Amino acid sequence: MFRMRLENYGLIGDNQTAALIGANGSMDWLCVPRFDSDACFAFLLGTQENGMWRIAPASPVGLVGKQCYRGDTLILETSFETESGKVCLVDFMPPREHYPEVVRIVKGVEGRVEMRMLLIIRFNYGLTTPWVQNDGGFFHAVAGPDALILRSDVEARGEGLTTVAEFTVEEGQQKSFTLAWYSSHLRPPRGLHPDHALTETENFWKRWVKRCTYEGPWRKEVIRSLITLKALIYAPTGGIVAAATTSLPEQLGGVRNWDYRYCWLRDAAFTLYALMQSGYSEEASAWIGWLLRAIAGDPAQMQIMYGVAGERRLIELEQKHLSGYEHSVPVRIGNAAAGQFQLDVYGEVLDALHVARSIGIRPADEAWRLQGHLVDFVEKNWDKPDDGIWEIRGPRRHFTHSKVMAWVAMDRAVKGVEQFGLEGNVEHWKSVREAIHDDICRRGYNAKRGAFTQYYGSEKLDASLLLIPLVGFLPPTDERVISTVQLIEKELMNNGFVMRYHPSDSSDVDGLPPGEGAFLPCSFWLADALTLTGQQEKAKELFNRLLTISSSLGLISEEYDAEKKRQVGNLPQAFSHVGQINTARNLSQNDGPAKHRSNS
After folding, report:
1. Of the candidates 185, 212, 241, which is a domain's last residue?
2. 3-state SS of 164-209?
3. 600: pLDDT confidence band, cut at 50, 70 and 90?
């Protein structure tokens, strides 16, 4: 059985976990009960023997359907057409109340179609084969703490450590399957009614989408990105995972394969703008609540990422039994970058909390006291080398972007006092802010290159420097900003998209073999920087180019391989969708997120 390209996967989810389903009807990725739990279907990163669940016409073998979402919802529909008829496979996960549950409904559209179901359950990322029992037509799969129960109005049977079924669907008929996870020491959950669950799920998403306040020319794309962002929110805590997957490669066949099923602090301010300016204050407030709980404690111990409930121990392990997506190994779970020192996240957190206040979210007084400790830490450590925004696994350096975000930390602390009447040693903070600013302009700007460079003393460029005008470090009219943007556009563009830094330089910077796609948020940053510097038409041209590489379902991954014309990296990537939302707003309104943040 073949695995799909990333562009041919659809996402479904229940606001606590998510699944990827290919246009061939195969569910190739599902972690339960949380985004970062072990996968029970891991075909995406291995073989079908590592777990999958396919429902599709029995013939022709390997038939690929056409996928779409049902309106503005997360209900996925895959249409298959054979010589004998047409069927539609409807996949969704009801927003969770108690248990994670996947519902799959096969509807006969025309004629008569022979169907086949193949269910291979393998817990522990495809490593553990469960004990499966048939209990009056219900199939229970149990291994250790995990259990799944399959219910269906189709008769299934066990066959060679798999569960299979053949059935026929005629026009107007439908057959249903539900698969629910539960803790193996408890009784299985009661079954739900598939049609009732479908109606409730559709109504949930319609109600949610109605809150969207964006009415610009890219409303369809913005709504799909907002739905995707909502799908990546872990509802019990408000944390937002960077992606629903792990180890999808940044280069096909390469080693840059990381686990993104965690919550990064770096995305905080961008995410807040995307949610709040689109009408989703409830989700924004929940995100701030998660943020404050996650970072509480000693500022020196603040991490760049946390688990969905604020967990700090994200030990990185290699899953050697998995062959990787298109043989891209190693496959990793956990993320060792959680232990890195990245100075910029202190600025991101302080900026996010400042944004929250400026757009109407009022963190508790305890939040300001916590911010004071973060400011003290930045004051004492801003002049130290760090691991940088790209989580390098090479030597620490004095990265210019990191210093800029240290300046942001001090700047937002000063503005907290000046704009909101909060208490603080504002005159001292101003002096530190000025010292950082002077240091960056003196050591981070390379007059020979006519641009800010990746790290002090370097001549190399870095796309993170596009954020200099976006965070208000310098005005977009400053000649140093204009020349930096121009040089990045000239040297870091690859077939129309922005690279993080020059691919041939990567091994010097991050200690890994060179080769990766274009990191898509960087292209959105360039569009925003072009907008701020008065190059609206060029920004629109870039934005429209970015829209063309999203999948037919409107999903965007982490990176794009412009030569192979394929999405690469983890999917869907929250940061990419946040970029699309914010850039659409920047291009269609005078007070978009970029202008608001740069003037903050």
Report:
1. 185
2. EEEEEEECCCEEEEEEEEEECCCCCCCCCCHHHHHHHHHHHHHHHH
3. low
